[in-house]
Design a protein that fits this description.
Blueprint: H1 2-11, E1 17-24, E2 27-34, E3 37-38, E4 42-47, H2 51-58, E5 61-68, E6 73-83, H3 86-93, H4 98-106, H5 116-129, E7 141-155, E8 163-170, E9 173-179
Length: about 180
C-alpha cells in the first residue's frame, strides 16, 4: 500500500480520499472520507454522532476503497474499526487549521439544519468568538483505525484483463492469491 500510495501522491489530486462503507441491520452506506495516516492500520477522524458513527457503534466491520483513476489502480481494504483514544483525537483536532476546528464544532453531522445560510452564519459568528481563543474540543469528535483482514490490489489492464491480488490475514501471516478480473 505504501508504495502505491507514494506513487498516487505524485499524480492524483486527492490520493488520501477513500470511500468508507459501513453497514447496520442489513443497510449499507458509503461516503467519501480522507485518510490521515497509515501503517499497520488506516486512520481517519469523524463525528461519532453522524450516521457512520452510529453504524460503527453497532457494527465495527467496514471497508475502504481507494480509486486512483490516473494510475488505473484501486485498493480495497476490509477490516474492523477501533476507536482512538481521546488524547490521540484531541492532538489531531488541535493540529488542524482553526477554521476546520470551528467547522467541526458547529456541525452536528448528519442532523437536519434549518438552512445552509444559518449554518454559515453560525460558522462566521464562531470565527469571531474564537479568533483569539482556543476552540473547545467537540464532544462528538473522534477517530478510528481500520485494522485490515483483507487487502486487494487492482491494476487496470488492456482488454479488461486487470491484475488483482488479494492478501488475507491468516493469524499473524498474510495469504496471497491472484484473482481473475
Amino acid at each position: 500500500f505504501k508504495k502505491w500510495y507514494i506513487e498516487a501522491t505524485k499524480k492524483v489530486s486527492e490520493p488520501n480520499a477513500f470511500a468508507l462503507s459501513t453497514s447496520y441491520q442489513g443497510k449499507s452506506s458509503s461516503r467519501m472520507m480522507l485518510l490521515k495516516s497509515f501503517s499497520n492500520s488506516f486512520t481517519f477522524y469523524t463525528n461519532i454522532s453522524s450516521r457512520k458513527g452510529r453504524d460503527i457503534k453497532k457494527n465495527n466491520q467496514a471497508s475502504m476503497l481507494f480509486w486512483w483513476k490516473e494510475l488505473q489502480r484501486q485498493v480495497r481494504i476490509e477490516g474492523n474499526l477501533y476507536q482512538l483514544s481521546e488524547s490521540t483525537v484531541r492532538k489531531y483536532f488541535y493540529s488542524r487549521p482553526k477554521e476546520s476546528q470551528i467547522g467541526a464544532l458547529i456541525s452536528n453531522q448528519s442532523s437536519e439544519v434549518s438552512s445552509f445560510t444559518d449554518l454559515i452564519e453560525d460558522y462566521n459568528k464562531k470565527r469571531i468568538i474564537y479568533k483569539n481563543k482556543k476552540v473547545p474540543f467537540p464532544k462528538n469528535w473522534t477517530g478510528f483505525q481500520l485494522k485490515p483482514r483483507l487487502i486487494e490490489f487492482w491494476q487496470g489492464g488492456e482488454n479488461r484483463l486487470h491484475q488483482r491480488v488479494e492478501h488475507k490475514r491468516n493469524g499473524k501471516k498474510w495469504d496471497s492469491k491472484v484473482l481473475a478480473p
